[in-house]
Amino acid sequence: MTKPKLRIGLIGSGFMGRTHAFGYATASRVFDLPYQVELTCLADISAQAAATAAAALGFARSTDDWRALVNDPEIDVVNITAPNAFHKEMALAAIAAGKHVYCEKPLAPLAADAREMAEAAEAKGIRTQVGFNYLCNPMFALARDMIMAGELGEIRGYRGLHAEDYMADATSPFTFRLDPAGGGALADIGSHALATAEYLMGPAAGAITQVMGDCVTVIHERPDGKGGTRMVQVDDIGRAFLRFENGATGSIEGNWIATGRTMQHDFEIYGTRGALAFTQQRFNELHFFSGGDARGRKGFRRIEAGPDHPPYGLFCVAPGHQLGFNDLKAIEVAGYLQALAGQRPEPFSFRAGLRIQTLVETIHDSSRDAAWKDVRMEGTPRAPAAREPREAVGA
Amino acid sequence: MTKPKLRIGLIGSGFMGRTHAFGYATASRVFDLPYQVELTCLADISAQAAATAAAALGFARSTDDWRALVNDPEIDVVNITAPNAFHKEMALAAIAAGKHVYCEKPLAPLAADAREMAEAAEAKGIRTQVGFNYLCNPMFALARDMIMAGELGEIRGYRGLHAEDYMADATSPFTFRLDPAGGGALADIGSHALATAEYLMGPAAGAITQVMGDCVTVIHERPDGKGGTRMVQVDDIGRAFLRFENGATGSIEGNWIATGRTMQHDFEIYGTRGALAFTQQRFNELHFFSGGDARGRKGFRRIEAGPDHPPYGLFCVAPGHQLGFNDLKAIEVAGYLQALAGQRPEPFSFRAGLRIQTLVETIHDSSRDAAWKDVRMEGTPRAPAAREPREAVGA
Amino acid sequence: MTKPKLRIGLIGSGFMGRTHAFGYATASRVFDLPYQVELTCLADISAQAAATAAAALGFARSTDDWRALVNDPEIDVVNITAPNAFHKEMALAAIAAGKHVYCEKPLAPLAADAREMAEAAEAKGIRTQVGFNYLCNPMFALARDMIMAGELGEIRGYRGLHAEDYMADATSPFTFRLDPAGGGALADIGSHALATAEYLMGPAAGAITQVMGDCVTVIHERPDGKGGTRMVQVDDIGRAFLRFENGATGSIEGNWIATGRTMQHDFEIYGTRGALAFTQQRFNELHFFSGGDARGRKGFRRIEAGPDHPPYGLFCVAPGHQLGFNDLKAIEVAGYLQALAGQRPEPFSFRAGLRIQTLVETIHDSSRDAAWKDVRMEGTPRAPAAREPREAVGA
Amino acid sequence: MTKPKLRIGLIGSGFMGRTHAFGYATASRVFDLPYQVELTCLADISAQAAATAAAALGFARSTDDWRALVNDPEIDVVNITAPNAFHKEMALAAIAAGKHVYCEKPLAPLAADAREMAEAAEAKGIRTQVGFNYLCNPMFALARDMIMAGELGEIRGYRGLHAEDYMADATSPFTFRLDPAGGGALADIGSHALATAEYLMGPAAGAITQVMGDCVTVIHERPDGKGGTRMVQVDDIGRAFLRFENGATGSIEGNWIATGRTMQHDFEIYGTRGALAFTQQRFNELHFFSGGDARGRKGFRRIEAGPDHPPYGLFCVAPGHQLGFNDLKAIEVAGYLQALAGQRPEPFSFRAGLRIQTLVETIHDSSRDAAWKDVRMEGTPRAPAAREPREAVGA
């Protein structure tokens, strides 16, 4: 009756690496996970950095050789939180070694690479996950449930946004985020807006079928960190008009020069009988307009997260206490482990990661050509009920 | 030392007709106007309706013949609040009769008509105004002042919205708002979003030079009021990407099927050193992010309208008491009367009305052709200081 | 069928004098009033000031002799907006002359004076009104209707507040507001919090029966305007615990040194089945929690003022456009004129003004004695339905 | 260089027991703690319950005998999250066994018991902590820093609140929270409002010196769970007026029948040059009004939690991502462990717990006697710098 062990290897210990470690620690306490998680090995760029991070984050061992980690027979799952440019090489190596892979978003800078990764994983029966961060919010689950149950009526319109200001300063130096291959605001955070749009709209309105993009570079040169400057070719703001399968329309914007904004991941969804409004700035709230309310008594309701919105109740038995960002990551971790155990389909597989990259690239293409583009359907999430659990890891 | 009289004739007594009457009444008390306003005559579709409205709204006389009103030698200014389709004919008649004309928005369903009206007025030296409703908000003046003074730094991005739900019900009957010539959400309320965008951005970022439109019909048939249905050809949602003269980019949306929304006329403006956020739902507030605030102390400030924001102080000497929608119209009326007296240029002339119609039509064209379109510069507001006061009316 | 004239005399032309003039102007246009209002005469402290104000505000005549105005046979109603210390003398003179009287709040600095005024008016059958400013908000009417209809269930708790910062600066000079007789934050604005409490709670919870006060002077000296200082004896913050007839309890605070606050007139009301929350900072909104909402879908709804909330629709036919402070005064004016015409009881008679002064004084007494005090029931509003319309003025 | 072990014993595994376990797990990952934490033993009411909880929460062993846990030589710290009535007995036993003790709030139902506990701990040199839950918010630290640095000027006024609705339903059965000894809304959650008041005001305004209480029972009978009813003697709403050492005044309210409210732990603080406003409903935000802002540009700023507000940055390197309730508990845990290691004074010792119980009891006494009461100064927090670190645990 003891749980099988699940041995985790983590590559990278930066912002997201820490978040993964926190996620495993919290998920192990909060959820009744199907596994006993062991943080087995952490790889980083130097032995010293890896050792320090391993000690801090509770990993038993460390290494400066990610390939060793990937091929370590005592590792079941490889978590990749290294810079985006390395995702593909690391993931393919891990897949080749038969490891399950949990990779941070974006899966790869280019959709073609993401496709290769997804196909490699599927060919080997590997279970994968891409870290989308925001989708595991209980208020997103509530929104999706309400939409699927028809509480908004027929879905007609969508407006999404992800705006921050971490690149607003023109004197901040050139970084990997600005790399011509796969960089830019649309890819970096507009991708979150796209992921949210399909996650929420998908079950009722279907996938995004067509896009018209508007990707603009605002800061054309950045310091190269060596006393000179380097030209920037990627977008600081990426916008798109959207079409969904059911005919609903919408728009999204990704913007990393939105002065004063730290986490403006917002959406509004309009249906024939109701509407939803949300901002990540207050992500423990969902605002719901019900057309069924009595005359003179209608208005957007501020629903606060509580035990009625699973899995909130596992974190806290009382409403209104609020989850934090790291809690969202713990829910993401738990969902993956449930999928590994065959208890549910993978919630956000590499194919879902490919899907988002496909959307981003199609918007880039549309913007370049100033023309509407059809979105390839590959990676389109199938309906939630359509996938059966498969055999479990470690069973 | 007594003020000259200004004799007003009003055509129409519906929503906007009443608002004009209220505007004159309030402006006459609140402002030190250059004229003694007399509400001389009101025209409506029947003698009975006109008489009733005249009595209620304080007009001395009434008529069912708008042509008589227009040609009445005892009328100085003709206010047109009749349905949009009549604006051109009425305005041209009034201009021909040498009357100054204050016409509700939209100036005309088609830009070509609006151009004819603007040119006719200019050829005769007629002073004109289009009623934009929201632009006279002291918080808009504050926003514009801040932008012009460089308090936001260089302006980079704009996001505008005007969403309501008055057409969300598919069973509501066909009305003039759905007329294929000039109707639709973009023209009806997206036009407000465009007017706000150019009003605020203009002095710093210049005019809108290019647009990419996305205009969609969601409800394809409406009851025709006679037991059948009528096909709808106009947009229920109109979106556009925008380019400004200084290179800034942005977007707007007009949406009249936004379930639950009554007055979501919002904007966000991002500069290099600061940002502004606003919603008409709380139009006595402007939210300002100052990059110059101390570290760890930054955040959007909720500035409440007060005597520091003229002409608020004429309405109320204490801050926080708030103006209402009808007060905004009173400010609009006062600005026009000041222009008639030569104290200032016309704030929102027919040429400004033409400008908005041009933008709407260009977005429609862009949407139809799925291509970026250059916006004709006609009607582009010149810089505020560039126009001198001309001779006064009634001086 | 023409309406009878109602001839108005106004004493004072400051903040509230202007507001009264605006109120008559707006009410005459917006409402179908039972009278044709004539702004007949304005009195102020000098002939020059009176003449200027009369011209600006639309009064036909002016005078520097308020007694002449009060006794002018061509005046039907005397509006008193002079400093508080003069209210009693002016009102008694007007009553003696048989004029109806509309006096700004507070009716008089001392409850004994207010009682004398109320009794004098009642003895002569004079119809009176006290200007409470905030009570005529359609959202207050909505709140009261909801409470009376039992939509909140049984009413249990109340929390009220009126906080501003206009006296927060210790270097601002001594004014009449600081007069030991009747001055202070509780009297000046805490009185609004009390008026709101009884207006909303009254029909369901009954009158305030007992109070425990806490009135504190924070700034003990102020400049006397002559180079010296003057001791302050009145409260800068006045708090009270409250008991209502039905057993409900609550609290209020009046605070004029609340740095940063301009109009924080707030309330929260808790019942067994629902709750209401409101702030005057956004007075076109009422927040309603309905315990009857579905599980997992509950939350405070932001109800926006609209035509479903009379008399909003008379000002604007579309929801969400918002009323301003001066519009609230116009509604107050209209209610008084309807009462003068016998169409309804006086909504806020001198007896209601006495009631508020009684509450203020009892809280002062309680604070001084550090003991709970019973509130004299005089002035307690009778149930809305209990008063029949009397004969009309000008009928 | 390896860290000393700190072996934790937990009594209780309900809401707060789980929160403690989560806190240790998260703190161990997020902070560089001075100890290697081992979750050694968990005690609960039955062997089965204890074993299940231990497995779920990661404790190595379990027991149904809390006395065994307390006397276990392999335990360094005893965490008490059992029902309030057991706190004293358990804590005294742990202290007698020389264990450090971390006890949930309230320390004990009666101040006399809390005093005995604090004195016992101090006599033995035991390091203690009381779990206050909300005080470790980085935004509280920011508020306190701003107040201490004089950014608000001299502190004049305070308004605090803690309102929820978990006892609003009169049909919910009698529980330990209703126990006549130490129960009631003031003790249960008003205590949080008091703790926040002294935590924030203390360094600048000093301790609360006098109180006037108003504690009311609203629901006089509750089901006894056996088919009958039981009389309720404790308060459902507890209010108090406050006096601080520096002369500042304020008020608090604890209310557990506030229909619709889940976590309305709010404060407003007014100084001569600025103000702060906060609600736990959005606890990653602090609203700051700076009187030093430019004219016409003043307003409450919404400061979002970020790396500028330690220890936020340890949880997340990017601003705006937000902490959750369990993160606050992890910060509380970390502070205690730092105190155990002598790195800082105990942030919230049993003496601080005694202090809050003293305030609660004094307010109860005041309410009963309807008289202002002086607050005994015992337990008043000394100034932050006044306590030196003592020898470390496990050094």
UniProtKB/TrEMBL annotation, chains A, B, C, D:
PANTHER family assigned to the protein according to its UniProt record, in alphabetical order: BCDNA.GH03377
SUPFAM superfamilies documented for this protein: Glyceraldehyde-3-phosphate dehydrogenase-like, C-terminal domain, NAD(P)-binding Rossmann-fold domains
Stored Gene3D superfamilies: Dihydrodipicolinate Reductase, domain 2, NAD(P)-binding Rossmann-like Domain
GFO/IDH/MocA-like oxidoreductase domain ranges (all copies): 140-276
InterPro entries listed in its UniProt record: Gfo/Idh/MocA-like_OxRdtase_N, Gfo/Idh/MocA_oxidrdct_glycsds, GFO_IDH_MocA-like_dom, NAD(P)-bd_dom_sf
An example Gene Ontology molecular-function term: oxidoreductase activity
Keywords: Oxidoreductase
UniProt protein name: Gfo/Idh/MocA family oxidoreductase
Gfo/Idh/MocA-like oxidoreductase N-terminal domain sequence ranges: 6-132
Alphabetical list of Pfam families matching this protein: GFO_IDH_MocA, GFO_IDH_MocA_C3
